[in-house]
Each structure stands twice: as C-alpha cells, then as structure tokens.
Amino acid sequence: MRIGILGAGVVGSSVAELAEEYGHTVTAIADSKSATTDANGIDVEAVLERKKNDGVVGDEPSDSAIDASYDALIEATPITIGDAEPAFSHVKGALERDCHVVLGNKGPMAQRYRDVRALEAESDGEIRFEATVGGPMPVLSTISDLGPDHVTRVRGVFNSLANFILSRMTAEGLGYEHVLAEAQDLGVAEVDPTFDVEGTDAALTCSILANVLTQSEREFTIDDVHVEGIKEIPGSALDLAKDDGRTVRLIGEISEDDVRVAPRLVSENSALAVSGARTVIQLETEHAGQTHVTGAGATGHEIATAILVDVTRLEAP
Amino acid sequence: MRIGILGAGVVGSSVAELAEEYGHTVTAIADSKSATTDANGIDVEAVLERKKNDGVVGDEPSDSAIDASYDALIEATPITIGDAEPAFSHVKGALERDCHVVLGNKGPMAQRYRDVRALEAESDGEIRFEATVGGPMPVLSTISDLGPDHVTRVRGVFNSLANFILSRMTAEGLGYEHVLAEAQDLGVAEVDPTFDVEGTDAALTCSILANVLTQSEREFTIDDVHVEGIKEIPGSALDLAKDDGRTVRLIGEISEDDVRVAPRLVSENSALAVSGARTVIQLETEHAGQTHVTGAGATGHEIATAILVDVTRLEAP
C-alpha cells in the first residue's frame, strides 16, 4: 500500500523506517515546515538523514504531502487539545479523497469522534486507530472481536511515565520532584511532563475507549472525563498504602456510569499494579472474565508497528 | 450462523448456552452417546436440562450431529493424544462438506496441523482455533495481526493448574502432594491431574504455536516438544529461588531453536511470574517489543466466548 506520513517526529520517522518491511511504500512525508513527495516512493533513508542534519524533510511546502498520491494517510503530528486541529483537517482531507486514514495522533478520536465517523461514513476510505490506545497492545482489536456490547468495564494504567514515577516513589521512598528529575535525566520524561503527570494523556485514551464502547450512542470528549493527576500525592500516602499491602497507580476507568482518571489504591498483587514504565489494560467482559494486556512504555518503533499493522489490516479484503 | 456442537461437556454446553447471545443458532449437539438435531434450532435449555438429569442430550445416535445441517462445526470433544481422533475425523467431515470448523479441542492443530491445513485448502470452509491457545486471550489474532514473521519468540505460562500449584507451594512453603490435594478439594484440579502437571497440556499449546509461527514450513507435533513437568520440584528449590528474588514457573517457550516446556527460574518481578490459577503469554517481536496477555484460568464460559468470537469472525466478509 502507498502511504503518506504527516509528522516526522519519533513516530512518523519510525513508520517511514519500517514501512518497507511491512510491504508498504512511502510516497509522502511532511513535518511542520517541509515535505517530500514521490508517487513512486521516496528515498526514506536520505529524507530521515536530512531531517537529522538540517531539521527538514524536503524542499516542498508541508501541505504538499496532504495532497500527494497515497492509499492511506498516517496522521502522526503532535496532539493538540480542543478541536484536535490540524489533525482533524488532515483526516477530513484524506477521507474526502476516499483514502484510508491510520491515526498515531489521539486527538481526533478523543475529541471529535462523531465528526470523524460521519466523514468516514461518506467515504470509501476507512479510519483505524489501534495505535492510539495502548500503542502496540491489541486493545481495540480485542474489543472489536469480543463485541463492544460484551465489554462491561475497562480499567488500566494508560500512561507509562506516570506509572514510572509512582513505582519509583513507592520503591525508593523518594518524593515526586526527585523522581521526575531522575526520569528526565533518563530520557523517560519530556522536559514538560504536564501532559503525562496531570492525567491528560490518560484522559484522551479514556475518551477514545468510551467512544468505542458506546458505539457513538453518546459522544465523549476529554471534557467528559474526570481527571486527577499524580502531582499532589505525598510520599507518605504511598508509605501508608505499602504497609497495607497496597500501592497507588494512576488508573483510567471506563464503566457504564463514569469515565475517570485518578490515583487509586490497588492491591500489590493486582494485575493493575504493574511497575516501572509499563502500562496495562484490563477488559472485563460478561462471559469471558477479565483479560489483561500489558506492554512496556511504547517507543517510536513500537507505535509505528501498531500503525503499520493497521495499514496491513486495511489491505485485507 | 447455524452451528453444530460436538461435545457436551463444560465447553460444549457453554457454547450452546451462549450461542444465541452472539447471534448464532444451534442446529445440532452431541455427546459421546447421543445427539439432538433440528435444522431450525434445537431447544438448548431443554437439551442441557436433559443432559444434567439423564446424562444424554437426545434420542438420536451421536453421529447424526456430524451429518446435520450447520454452517460451522464446533469441535469440543475431549483431547486425545496421538492421532487426535475422533476429533480429526470430525474436522475432516465438516471441511469436506464445505462447512467451517471452530476448534475448542487442541488435538488437531497440535498433532495433525498439515493434514488439517491440506483439508482446509480443498474446502470452501475455514478453520479457526483461537480458543485452543490461551482460551479467551487474544493470542492467535495478535500473532496474525503482527504477522507471524515478525514474532521472534513466544514464552508463557500456559497451564493454570500447574501455575496454581507452584504459586501455592512458593507462598505457603507446602509440598507438591499437599497443594495438589487442596486444588482437588477446591475443584481447580481434576481427579487425574497428569495432563496438567506433567506438562502435556502446555506442550499441546506449544505445538500449535510452533505450527502457526513457522507457517507450515515444518510440522510440529507434541513429540517435537521437550517436556518436563512440575512433579519432581522439591519445596527446597522454591525456597532457594525465593531467597534470590526469583520464583519457579512452568514455562512454555517457542523460539527459532527450540520448543520446550519446563520449570524455569524467573524473577519475581517478571511479567511471567503470574500467581494463582492464571496464565500469561509473552510475544516478543522484532519492532514492537514485548507484549503480554494474561488471563484467569479459563472456565467453560470463557472458552465458549472465544469459540463464539471465532464463529463471528467467520461471518465477516
């Protein structure tokens, strides 16, 4: 399949790098400033080299990638909160041209679910977004196999940085600021970790899951998620929990009554008590009990793999 | 879809019970002695009631179910070692009639993989067997999504009873015989637990996974799996492991060089160190890192759900 890639950060670059291995051809790639397009396939290696050295992916204007020739558009630009722009317009453009869209960006399905589904209904193209929920973990595919109707509750640790910080605070008895600085030194945390530690990233995941589970009966946006982050948790609370055989995790939960992200006490033996930069998603079903999927905090290659698997699914009859 | 069910034990009965909820009609059901068939749908409740009270599912001979009218045959008779009969003949009969087959029975894909695939190639029917690997856990679907070529290694705890016994031995410092008797009292273990504790059940799972991963390049049967069970593990070995921050689990492993089931030392913090009657499967991929899927020891309803999800997949275009 011929793919166009919007976004040349860690995820977009990894998609470009791995595309050939999954049998796909990259015909366009853009970052915020520039683009390269070639209907016969761009020279990925040269483009990524140039990105590294000069900070641009080509000589064309960024917009030319959207209008290029491809079967599927990969949306991997940075997440924005609110109207999910410009990602939403990228999705719209591709679907209106009857092209498929695969999302790496959580914004459109977390904040404009109905609008995207409406565009998809009018298009010969399809939209896929497995990578936006748990990265490489098979979450949406499992929900789709079980049937969303049969999934009664989803809980999970959706953000690996928040989990890394809470695990370290618990294990070492260290304070929040100290562990955060350590995470930044290790490259686990961005310079601005707000998005992760305030629960915004987990809330976006919850919103997507709520939309998928209710099958558009009701639309969820990030504003419908009750969010509480981990910055205010005192070390003493973690010590108290530990004495009681429990621990604190930033848990996202989607049930019939409520969509919520908050620090919660869980038993140390619970499947939700993963440690380090890990994530876990628990699916509770009517008849199939609980299934857990866990993964390591996803790197660019891992998210790219989830995206390319989605592209491959589109090719299937 | 109209389904015929062979086997009216815990799994077969659960499939019958839940079929309607997944939009399917049961047109035949058989145990080893009897059958009921009705092209318009049998009265499931009455049949299961009769099975409970009289030990039979109907007045017809057992074989009449195989010849009945259905779109998909569910094979849920007890596993046999060796030529996987009579399950293999059931699969053959259905595929030769161009019907689909969904397996609850591990035998055919663990022991006669190529024969089954050859029959499928000649048939308009398809074969599905997600329930035979980890029950309700999405393992085969994830391997298929990732592409078997991209999965470099699979390891896991495939048998929940063996894991229950090892966990209890470790946690309580009790001996094998003591914990086994306890498991039998709790109904977690069968009267004859040989199949589970000697590693045979896990070996069947390994053989299926090896066949799926090599995509028929080479055929695996249970004879190709190196198997060592848990009966000979002394309590002292578990204590020694514990002092070292490790624990012992019955691990199945499928890698390029080897297919093996054996007690192995794993770190207490490892994702493979699940405790109690749980199972876990670790998929190691070239680019997507490690993904783990865990589940509780599967009940009849859980395995039935996996089977019915497979049936539903068959309906999709």
TrEMBL record, chains A, B:
A GO molecular-function annotation: homoserine dehydrogenase activity
Record key words, sorted: NADP, Oxidoreductase
Keyword NADP: yes
Annotated residues for binding of NADPH: 106
Family listed: Belongs to the homoserine dehydrogenase family.
A GO BP entry: threonine biosynthetic process
Transmembrane feature ranges: none
Homoserine dehydrogenase catalytic domain sequence ranges: 138-311
Signal peptide limits: none
Domain Glutamate/phenylalanine/leucine/valine/L-tryptophan dehydrogenase C-terminal: 2-61
Pfam families named among the record's database cross-references: ELFV_dehydrog (PF00208), Homoserine_dh (PF00742)
Record EC number: 1.1.1.3
Protein name according to UniProt: homoserine dehydrogenase
Binding-site residues, L-homoserine: 190
Record InterPro entries: Glu/Leu/Phe/Val/Trp_DH_C, HDH_cat, HDH_short, NAD(P)-bd_dom_sf
Keyword Glycoprotein: no
Residues the record lists as binding NADP(+): 7-12
